[in-house]
Amino acid sequence: MSKNRMETFSDMSRREFLKTSATAAGGLLLGFHLPFISDPVRVGASPVITFVPNAWLRIGSDETVTVIASQAEMGQGVYTGMTMIIADELGADWSRVKVENAPNAPAYRNPRINWQFTGNAESTRSFYLPLRKAGAAAREMLIAAAAKQWSVDPSTCRAYKGVILHSPTGRRVSFGKVVSQAAKLKPPDNPPLKDRKEFRLMGKPLPRLDTPSKTNGSAIFGIDVSVPGMVHAAIQQVPEFGAAFAPFDRESAEQRPGVIGVVSLEGAVAVVAESYWLARRALDSLGLNVEPGPNRFLSAAQIVEAHRQAMEGERAVKVTQIGEAKALIAKATEKIEAVYESPFQAHATMEPMNCVAHVTADRCEVWAPTQGQELAQIVVASITKLPPEKIRINRTFLGGGFGRRLLADFVA
Fold this sequence. Notes:
By secondary structure, the chain is of the alpha+beta class. The protein has a domain at 3-216: Aldehyde Oxidoreductase, domain 4, CATH 3.30.365. It contains eleven helices and 16 strands. The chain has helices spanning 3-11, 14-19, 78-90, 123-150, 179-182, 211-216, 250-254, 276-285, 300-312, 325-331, 373-384, and strands at residues 27-30, 49-54, 57-60, 65-69, 97-101, 157-160, 163-166, 171-174, 232-237, 244-245, 259-265, 268-273, 290-291, 356-359, 364-368, 391-395. Strand 7 and strand 8 (171-174) form a beta hairpin. The radius of gyration is 26 Å and the shape is flat. The relative contact order is 0.13.
């Protein structure tokens, strides 16, 4: 990653972005571009007039439609799914649509629980209507701009494949040609949504937007991130909660070539070096021995029994009972009872847990394959004592999540 690109990440804050998008009555910017790791930075291009109707969309005079994806792409296809929703309602030309990662910001919180995270299979069901409304609002503004240009009633116009059409006369104008006029209009509070029979993208088989980069090797996962001057850490954790490492010869590792230092963490030891393999070899040379904790012989059967006891205790979830189920069951002539159990499952992600952090006295920037940008921001704030607005979480592609990457222990 070049130094210029690194600086671009830092220079545009979340607040600056949202100030021009989420709360603006239509935004108009020249040459505006908020780059993310998976997207190349435009260098030397002619100024592009960019219409920013809300936090979810940017429409350029170059006809490019950029969707800002609030949810993490970890193989489930949410990049494509969310983009299809907003692009379909907008009436965009799918061939001109691209997607970018959202920053950590309130505008991208799950509306059901007011929290920015990706999990519980909630991405589509929670953002379906907000995304449609965002696309519809932008569509109505573009139509209004074109109608004003033609001096016609907006109701006689429609958006289709990236152009505004005037049905009575057959006139047409592309989105890019009216973005400057659309940006001067006030976004509608309750834009009309399309009828399902008008959908061209949703429910149709389309190639996934993340497939090309993942097949040609250009996709950036957390473990691919590289920034100028970065160092590497190899970490060894104790095998069970509550255990600890016995005292070890720290100096023997610190004297090895390329090693910067050895750091003791809670239940773990990290060796920091100029490269990962130097750190890994130095860590292995320590020959760490484990001092067993109370969970050394904990078994699956013990975990199941602990769960069973907890379900019968005071902390058990109280189920709301409606009707006379117990009485009716008691009268039944035949009863079938069964207990279903599921063993403890480890979240084994294909991409190892990883994180890159750049910490200075007055800010912290993180690159991580995280499902929980907001939680990561909170954890970083608790460690660095920096205010949230000084912390930026850059989310990359995730090599599997399964809920494991929702927690932010690996960021800490």
